[in-house]
Every structure is written in structure tokens, then in C-alpha cells.
Write a sequence for this structure.
């Protein structure tokens, strides 16, 4: 496959840095939107209603759609050209953002988030392919060297920007501004793309889209995520388990279809021979466990500090900064030569650091209790972030070490899609564990505070019988409030409690209501604290699974420089999936630009020489508070 590459067809493309700025702006748009809903989730829920599942679907819908569309989005660029497909993606993403801001119901907002993810999957795979096409080999290092830190800096600031916009409540917009900000950014990216991105074309006969494979893979993923998210609130009816079982069948059909297409010489979504490689398959399962853990932890932690501890969105965003900063430190340490020297051991070292940080967070919450402050969490979150960066830096190159050159595009695209799916699964699984135990922990916390409340009520002169009534209703009310599907609605049990407290206050004074209210707040904080502590062990278990599965990986990363002069040919040329974390989209050209900046650490330039390759894909969603998504 040959592209009319401005960087190799003559003098360097005149507007290459302007094109770079356009690609970077689009990537930042997506990055911010993958981070902001964790911070904004509680505020959104309080405004338009929706149960805990809404907070989960805001992230899961986006990342699931991104996972479903990334490989297909990259191939659309191969067929129709990266510039027009990029423009369509920017327009769609911007319009979907405005619709998100205009949403008046949970269903509408979730649907618009899915649309954002789909158009992001169309937009993002073109970005790095454009950069590789417009820069001459000697400038690729400079371009990717600027791309990585810019994305990392955006990751650090993303939660803070989201919290600031929500707290500022500009023009009464509240949470809607986190989506409206994409309107000016999208318009600038659109104008810049039209003016500065070069036209490109594929001189090979266009490949065919594997639409059936896309539908089957997406359906199988949805059959897992949907019942896991919705099952808890519905009481786990039989159909939820039927859907999960059906997902196994659909995944099997997907594998059969892909094998058949491959054997007929077609262009399958995923090359079936990849799954015969132990290292690659082990890498997929390692990534699945890891990203499920970190994305789920980020969601639950953000909900805990906002709803449980009552932090403002800005304070919540600032609380997560140590983890984001730690991830930068981890990346720098890996890039300084540790990753190349340690190889797979770097992954395990990162997982140990992350696990220590997560357990440290558990211990901090346990011993600080309801008096927890953001400063208490700095050491543990910093360790978590350092481990995150150390794991991600070599991960993608190590997983791809045993992949043949002709399989590279499909392999990286598959790895990227699994990463996005794991993000959605993490939101579903870890979020469901947290919300599933929350009500019980809040109710138990009420019971533990009951003796102190009884003492206060006795001092106020409330009879034992009335005390029993108030405490019983408080137990039920707080449990119902913690699991309510609509936070704006008052549960019936709370209405009964209000009546009982109102009667007692009228007879014995306002101190009765004050005592009950104070106890309710303390119990809610203690219940959230206990729930997040229990959920953390699910995260630890997933990280332990990733540690064990990591032994299936090769010791050293892929030597991409060995591939630079090969003609990749075949179906995987220009797969567009060679950008990981939702940021990628290596074009997999005829060998001239193979893998330039395609991964962390080093990529390969057009002349086959290694160039620093901070694709910054790994920063996406996981360095700060979530993801989703890309």
C-alpha cells in the first residue's frame, strides 16, 4: 500500500506543524471527554436523575462504542483518505458533544455519549497516521516528543478543568460546560483540518470493511456489559445471566466468521492466527485484567470522594492529581532506560507498585475514617500512579514482540479494542461491586451510630418507643437513599422518618432533628468508606491476576526497527489500529513509515532508525481519573 506521503515525495510538507496542532487538538478533545464524566457524574445524576447505573454508563457507553469502532474507523481512513474521514469524525464528535450538553434525560445523555465514542473512533485513528505522513524522518522524533508530553499534561489537568468548569457554573451551565467546551475546540479543529491537513489516497485496491465482524464483536461485548451494569438494580433477573451466557456463544461465532473470512483471503476485523500466539493472547488477558482494575478503581474512588465525603467536583479533581503526577514519573523512569533494561520485569514492578498504592489507599481510608483529607491520600495515590506509568510504558511493545510484521496492524488494533472494552468492563464490574455493597454498609453504619444517637435522644427527652421508631426508619431511609435510582426523589422510608423526627422535634425541641441529621451524615460517610474499602479488594484481585498472566509475555519488547524495511502488504496495511489507548491509528504503510511513534519508548522512522515514540496513547483515561475511554 502506498500513500502520497508529502514527507517522502519531495520537500517537507509546508504546513506540517499546523497539521500536527490540528491532530493534537482533536486528541485533547477526546482525552478530556474520556476523563470528565467521572468528575461530573455525581453532579449530572443530581441534575437529571438516574441511578448509580447512569454514572457507570456515562463512561462505559463511551468506551464500549470506542472499542467497537476503532479498527473500522482506521480502515475507513485507508479507503476514503485520512483527511475526509478525520473531518467527518471531528464534525460528528463536536455535534455529539453539543447534544450531550443539551440532554435532559439519562437515556438521551447516554445515547449521545455512545455517539461521541463512535465518532471518536472515526476521528482518532487518522491522527498519528497524518503525523507520520507529513513529517520527514528526521523530524518525527521532535513531533512525537512533543505529542506525548502534551497529552500527559492534558491528562493531569483534565479532572481539574472539569471540576473548575462545574464549580464555576458559567451562565448557569453547571456540568453542561464540560461538553460545550468542545464546540469552539471542534470548530477550530475543523477549520484547521480543512486548511492544513494534506489530501491522501490509497493506491491499492480498497479493502473491504468487515461489518459482520464488527457487529458480532460489538454485540458480544454489549451482552456482557449491559447485564452487569443493569443487573444489580433489577435484582439480577434470569435474563441477565442468559445474556452473559449468550455473549460466549456470540464470541464463538465471531471467531468462526473471522477464520472463514481469513481462509478465503478476505480482510477480517481480527487476524485469527494471532490467537495461536501465547504471548499475544496472554497480553490480551493481562491487559483485560489491568485496565478493568484501574478504570473501575478510578470510577469508584471519584464517586466515593464526591458523594461519600461531599467533595466538590474541583476538590475531587485536585485529589486525583497525585495519581496523574505519579504516572508521569513512572513514564519518565521507564523512558530513561529502565523499560529497555528490565523488559517484562518492568511490568511486574509497575503492578507491584500499583498494588501497594491501592492497598495503601485502603489503609489510609480505614485509619483516617470520616476525617479523611486529600493530603492523607497523596502517598498512596502517588505510588498507584507511578506503578501505572511503569506498567503502561513497555506493555504494548512487549505484547506485540512475537507478532509477525504482516499481523502488526490487526494485532495492535485488537489490543487497542480490548483495552477499551476492559475500560467498559471495569466500570461495569467494579462499579457494580461498589454500588451492590453500598446500601448494606450505610445501613450497618447507622446501626453502629445508634447508641450515640440514643444517648442524645434520651437527653432530649424522647421516649424509648419513639427512639426505636426513629432508628428503624433511619436505618431503612439511609439504605434506600444510598441505592436510590433517582437522587432527587425522597424515598418513602425517608418520608416516614421525616414525619417521626418532625413529631419528636415538635415535642422535645430542634436538637432532635439536628442529632438525627448529624448521625445520618456520619453514617453515610462511614458507609461509603466501608464500601470502597471492600471494593478495593476486587481491584487488588484483578491486579494480582494481571501479575500472574504477565508471565505469559516475552521478556523483551518488540524490535520495531527490524520491521521498517519490510513490505507489510496484505490485509493489515493501513489497518489504522496501530495506535493504542484510543489515540492511535498508525497507517501501516508500505514499510516506509512503519510504526513511527506507534508505541511508548521507541518507534521506527522512515529510514528504519529508532525514534522516540511517545504516542501518548497510554495516557488516555488511565493516568488520572478514568476512561474510558479514550
Amino acid at each position: 500500500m502506498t500513500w502520497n506521503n508529502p514527507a517522502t515525495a519531495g520537500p517537507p510538507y509546508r504546513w506540517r506543524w499546523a497539521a500536527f496542532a490540528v491532530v493534537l487538538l482533536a486528541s485533547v478533545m477526546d482525552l478530556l471527554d474520556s476523563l470528565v464524566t467521572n468528575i461530573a457524574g455525581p453532579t449530572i445524576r443530581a441534575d437529571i436523575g438516574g441511578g448509580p447505573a447512569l454514572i457507570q454508563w456515562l463512561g462505559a457507553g463511551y468506551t464500549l462504542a470506542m472499542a467497537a469502532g476503532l479498527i473500522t474507523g482506521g480502515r475507513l481512513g485507508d479507503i476514503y483518505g485520512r483527511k475526509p474521514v478525520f473531518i467527518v469524525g471531528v464534525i460528528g464528535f463536536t455535534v455529539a458533544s453539543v447534544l450531550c450538553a443539551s440532554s435532559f434525560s439519562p437515556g438521551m445523555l447516554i445515547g449521545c455519549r455512545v455517539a461521541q465514542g463512535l465518532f471518536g473512533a472515526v476521528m482518532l485513528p487518522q491522527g498519528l497516521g497524518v503525523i507520520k505522513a507529513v513529517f520527514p524522518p528526521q523530524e518525527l522524533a521532535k513531533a512525537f516528543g512533543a505529542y506525548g508530553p502534551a497529552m500527559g499534561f492534558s491528562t493531569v489537568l483534565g479532572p481539574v478543568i472539569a471540576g473548575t468548569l462545574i464549580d464555576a457554573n458559567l451562565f448557569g451551565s453547571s456540568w453542561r460546560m464540560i461538553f460545550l467546551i468542545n464546540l469552539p475546540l471542534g470548530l477550530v479543529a475543523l477549520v484547521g483540518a480543512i486548511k492544513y491537513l494534506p489530501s491522501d489516497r490509497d493506491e491499492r485496491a480498497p479493502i473491504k470493511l468487515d461489518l459482520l465482524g464488527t457487529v458480532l464483536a460489538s454485540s458480544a461485548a454489549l451482552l456482557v456489559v449491559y447485564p452487569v451494569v443493569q443487573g444489580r438494580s433489577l435484582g439480577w433477573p434470569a435474563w441477565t445471566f442468559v445474556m452473559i451466557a449468550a455473549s460466549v456463544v456470540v464470541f464463538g461465532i465471531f471467531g468462526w466468521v473471522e477464520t472463514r473470512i481469513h481462509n478465503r483471503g478476505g480482510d477480517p476485523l481480527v487476524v485469527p492466527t494471532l490467537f495461536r500466539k501465547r504471548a499475544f493472547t496472554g497480553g490480551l488477558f493481562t491487559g483485560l485484567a489491568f485496565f478493568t482494575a484501574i478504570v473501575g478503581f478510578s470510577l469508584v474512588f471519584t464517586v466515593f470522594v464526591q458523594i461519600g465525603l461531599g467533595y466538590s467536583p474541583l476538590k475531587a479533581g485536585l485529589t486525583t492529581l497525585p495519581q496523574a503526577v505519579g504516572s508521569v514519573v513512572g513514564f519518565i523512569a521507564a523512558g530513561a532506560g529502565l523499560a529497555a533494561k528490565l523488559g517484562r520485569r518492568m511490568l511486574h514492578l509497575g503492578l507491584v507498585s500499583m498494588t501497594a498504592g491501592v492497598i495503601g489507599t485502603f489503609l489510609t481510608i480505614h485509619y483516617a475514617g470520616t476525617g479523611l483529607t486529600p493530603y492523607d491520600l497523596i502517598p498512596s495515590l502517588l505510588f498507584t500512579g507511578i506503578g501505572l506509568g511503569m506498567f503502561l510504558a513497555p506493555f504494548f511493545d512487549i505484547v506485540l514482540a512475537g507478532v509477525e510484521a504482516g499481523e502488526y496492524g490487526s494485532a495492535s488494533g485488537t489490543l487497542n479494542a480490548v483495552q477499551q472494552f476492559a475500560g467498559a468492563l471495569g466500570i461495569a464490574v467494579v462499579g457494580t461491586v461498589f454500588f451492590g455493597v453500598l446500601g448494606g454498609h450505610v445501613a450497618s453504619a447507622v446501626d453502629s451510630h445508634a447508641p450515640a444517637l440514643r444517648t442524645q435522644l434520651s437527653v432530649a427527652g424522647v421516649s424509648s418507643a419513639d427512639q426505636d421508631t426513629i432508628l428503624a426508619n433511619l436505618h431503612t431511609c439511609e439504605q434506600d437513599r444510598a441505592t436510590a435510582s433517582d437522587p432527587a426523589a425522597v424515598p418513602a422510608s425517608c418520608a416516614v422518618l421525616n414525619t417521626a423526627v418532625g413529631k419528636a422535634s415538635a415535642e422535645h425541641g430542634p436538637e432532635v432533628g439536628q442529632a438525627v441529621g448529624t448521625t445520618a451524615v456520619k453514617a453515610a460517610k462511614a458507609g461509603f468508606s466501608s464500601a470502597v474499602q471492600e471494593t478495593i479488594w476486587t481491584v487488588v484481585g484483578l491486579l494480582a491476576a494481571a501479575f500472574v498472566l504477565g508471565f505469559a509475555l516475552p521478556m523483551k519488547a518488540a524490535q520495531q526497527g527490524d520491521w521498517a524495511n519490510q513490505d507489510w502488504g496484505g490485509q493489515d496495511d493501513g489497518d489504522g489500529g496501530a495506535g493504542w489507548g484510543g489515540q492511535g491509528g498508525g497507517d501501516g504503510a508500505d514499510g516506509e513509515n512503519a510504526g513511527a511513534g506507534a508505541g511508548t519508548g521507541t518507534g521506527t522512522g522512515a529510514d528504519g532508525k529508532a525514534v522516540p515514540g511517545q504516542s501518548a496513547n497510554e495516557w488516555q483515561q488511565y493516568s488520572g481519573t478514568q476512561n474510558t475511554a479514550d
Residues 406 and 568 are 5 Å apart (CA to CA). The longest strand covers residues 602-604.
